[in-house]
Amino acid sequence: MTHSGEITSLALFTHSSCTSKREATCHFYYSSISSSQNTTQHKRETERERDMTEVGSENTANMEAGAGAGVEKTAMVVGIDESDHSFYALQWTLRHFFSIPVPLFNLVVVTAKPTPSSVVGLAGPGAADVIPFVESDLRRSSLRVIEKAKELCNSHSVSDVVYEIHEGDARNVLCEAVEKHHADMLVVGSHGYGAIKRAVLGSVSDYCAHHAHCTVMIVKKPKQHKH
């Protein structure tokens, strides 16, 4: 729910290999959000608070019961870039997963830095001379994305976060991050591309939904209505 009363659009894709109790709990939570869309705003807020309490209580009980057995939280990877859509997805994740006393997951924030050759190509005259400057710009841009993510996490009092920059195509980078951290969930924002642009550029969210070996949540920023 946004401050304007609009519903955030969610898409949840559960990989066939995802069978952990933690994922089942998350799936239940988001099913409860989806089922409340036709109720009043007050009822939606009440149900959300109740579900968050149930998730937090169950997680706390599980942590206490398994403390002696070395039970560890698994990772949630959030993919970000410079777009407002990806930072909305990160903010949404912080509010709904990391505002409880004992979060279900360890948070990993990942951004992909394109290779210089993918930006300028290598065929043109003088391209080799341009590459170092492009590399420097791409590195600075990636660092700005991470710094902005840190500020957002800090503003939500979430400090135990892993931040990573990896070079390559965002689709591959995010799927590899899932494998590296043995993540149970991957969160990405939806850019809302049309069918033609999505076909030409390729959709990171679509690719991850089909190739990431974990549950994938796609968070779409609500459209702002002009008055």
Describe this entry's structure for a reader.
Helices cover 51% and strands 18% of the residues. The protein has eight helices and six strands. It has helices at 21-35, 41-66, 84-97, 116-120, 127-155, 170-181, 195-201, 204-211, and strands at 9-13, 74-80, 105-113, 161-167, 185-190, 215-220. α3 links the parallel β2 (74-80) and β3. The protein starts with 8 loop residues before the first strand and ends in a 7-residue tail after the last strand. Mean pLDDT is 75; it is low at 1-6, 19-42 and 48-70. It comes from Rhynchospora pubera. Residues 42-53 have a biased composition (Basic and acidic residues). Residues 37-57 are annotated as: Disordered.
Name the assembly state: single chain
Question: Between the first and last Cα atoms, what is the distance in angstroms?
Answer: 19 Å
Q: CATH fold name, please?
A: Rossmann fold
Number of strands: 6
Mean pLDDT: 75
Number of discrete helical segments: 8
CATH architectural grouping: 3-Layer(aba) Sandwich
Low-confidence stretches: 1-6, 19-42, 48-70
Main β-sheet, spatial strand arrangement: 1-6-5-2-3-4
Helix content: 40-55%
Strand content: 15-25%
Keywords: Hydrolase
Protein name: Adenine nucleotide alpha hydrolases-like superfamily protein
Domain UspA: 76-220
InterPro entries: Rossmann-like_a/b/a_fold, Universal_stress_UspA, UspA
